[in-house]
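Continuing from the previous page of notes. For each protein in this section, the sequence appears first, followed by its structure tokens. Read the first protein now.
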Amino acid sequence: MNNRRQFLKQGTSGIALSVMPHWLLADSHRISPKRRDWLRMRAAEDDDVLSKARQDIPQIRMSDMEIQLLASNGKPVKHTPVEIVQQRHSFSFGDCNPDMDKIFRQEGADSEKLRQYRRLFSDALNTVNATCYWTERPRNNMAKTEEYQGEPYYDGFANTVDWGNANGLTVKGHPLFWPVEKAIPEWLKRYDYPTQLKFLEVRLRQLVGRFKGKVKVWDAVNEMLWEPALKNLSKRQWPHFENVDDMADYISFVMQIVRSEDADAVYTLNDYGLELPWPKPLKSNTGIDVTPQLQRQRYIELIQRLRTTGHHPNALGLQCHDGWQKPADQMAFYSEMAKAGLPLHVTEFWAKTDHLKKSGIKGTAVNGDFITERFENSNAPVYTQAQIDLLQADFVEQYLTCAFGHPSVEAFIFWGFMGMGVEWKVDDSTSYELKPVYHRVKKLIHEQWKTNLKLETNGDGMLRFKAFHGDYTVRYPLINGGPMSAAASFTTGAASKGNLRLETII
């Protein structure tokens, strides 16, 4: 393992005990009774953490609301039916869009598949992470905005941005700067470092300035804990530990420029390898043993250093490619990273299932925290595809619930939700099948974690209820017994007092 791609591909995987369903434990006759009892005990411990996360969600994500409806003459609107309709969440639930951009580039903006893809996307999520790599070579068919000098190409990115805004989605851009060799155009390397910085500044100003007000969140710098500063790119030896002062120097440069173009956008840093122990030891270019704990410490130290420059990010981005994490470990991870004093964004989450497809193996053990069972004389896969799909959906629900149930997390962006949730029958066809992950996530966001109420005002024209943070419409009948008509709107959030007086036109 000598590069980022191999690291992510071979990252720790295993069945989190909390998502080991009872039907698998009961039917796994090849697991010893003692082992089965141990698994159930550990699963119960994680169930407690998951249950607490569910219980905390109303306290963290909802506000007690008190609304008085007044007629135009100032009198309360008494005993009148009212609908409280949540239009959008304040919390970002999103996915990255490489496939969406690929369909645009290969089939065009009027592609039937693109329209179908986007409909499914927006039916489930409220945020789109639009890709805008400077370049991305050689393996990925990603959106490259200036692979050839002097030929910027923003068509795909702009199309996604416009579509997202037109359909009420929050748009995020990824990434403004990624200091890895494959994401730096070859033409840039002909110039000295001061000139390279000038070209970087032009890129930053073009993107952020052009899409000001349309792109609300940017991954400003990507994966700096593993990569060199631009001036040291030729010395890259992955994993490359850049010293904190050099990281802070170029990140401050980026932050100062982008904020001068759009001071209202949210800018994050984004990094990986922070969650779970890895299957193989790593040494950095400086000879230091690399561990997730060390990378967490370096990340927090970097934020502290950036505070002294006045150019720290608005939020801390946490990639989550490392494996199937237990609820207790996930919540502890968030609490530790929150010590940086910034909101947390889960920026790239996927739930790999390769470990579930291996013959003769049930999971992978990491420090005794995951299930490990090896079976002799077994050439058949341990799980059917239907079981794998259910396990994946269970884990995604667990992971998303814990993130939503932690007070420091403000956004959750998948990296491949559409890939996990939608199976296209043929690459260029619009025929598809929705998988368990899609249904499970949509139900959480649009049913369990959404407020839609039918109430009646009391004798004082008052309504009292609890609502998830977000934007709302209050609907009431213009004439008693008539159809509901949008009367007013309000927004509730963690800082709102929850006491509103809305004047109607009754």
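Done with the first. The second protein uses the same format. Note its length before scrolling.
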Amino acid sequence: MSPIGRLAPSPTGAQHLGNARTFLLAWLSLRARSGKIILRIEDIDSPRVKPWAAEQAVEDLRWLGLDWDEGPDRPGPQAPYFQTQRSDAYASALERLRRAEQVFPCTCTRSDIATAASAPHAGQEGPVYPGTCSSRRAGDAIDLRPPFAWRFRLGQGPAAFHDRFAGPQTVRLEQLGDFVVYKSNGTPSYQLAVVVDDWAMGVTEVVRGDDLLPSTFRQLALYSFFNWQPPDFYHVPLVVGEDGRRLAKRHGDTRLATLRRQGIRPEVVVGWLAWSAGLLEQPQPIRPRDLLPEWNWNRIHRRRWTWNPAILNKWKC
């Protein structure tokens, strides 16, 4: 059976070289096995979503030479492809969680949690939720004045899964804490939306950055609750700046749209990304489809690639 995967840009800003490398690896993994690719726009983070970013992400992917079988521009059975158009599915999932008392209403603000919780564990997004509202039942929401969020009861004890690239992963669930599945503004969290969508779209393979490894334990807990088969996960190293931190504006302009405007050839960018990942012995211009004959996950480096802005001067030659 051919795998099914997705490219899922978030239109909270421009796509950069770090996004591009992960998209390239996801595309190669699927196309090398005649897999199906779905383009999904993860636009539920409404305060941060930029109105131009979704269209630009599609243009960036096309510019790189990546394609897909279904998406906003290629409608198919898995439509719609914008998460903001899939709200009924998320609301239905939340109702199942509420009926099972698997979630509770939480009125804590971020500052409340920061004050009450311990310091964040390594690799976590912030302080671990201290369980302040966990004694509430789902029905208690009727007596609460909004805003409040819904948190999933994650439980305690060890958890493990085998990442198809990063290898065995373990954690104690109390190090993650009960997590938000519906935000206080009435929209689903990333954790819930991505699980509901991947299951509904039949996704069997997820390739993403290794900064999301902790999220996988949360998502696997949701898969378990709904009794859904989870996909295979491949968490790949990020592109980082010379300070060792995830690629961002502070490391210079690495936006794909900027590279396009500067007249840099996409084959040059793809060649450097492929070389950085271990697919080429040296950087050379190449199209994604020309990498398919030699594709193998065993060739991919397990170290993060450090971006040096001086590389841009070579690309402009």
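What the second structure shows: The CA atoms of residues 51 and 253 lie 20 Å apart. The first strand starts at residue 4 and ends at 7. We return to this in next week's lecture.
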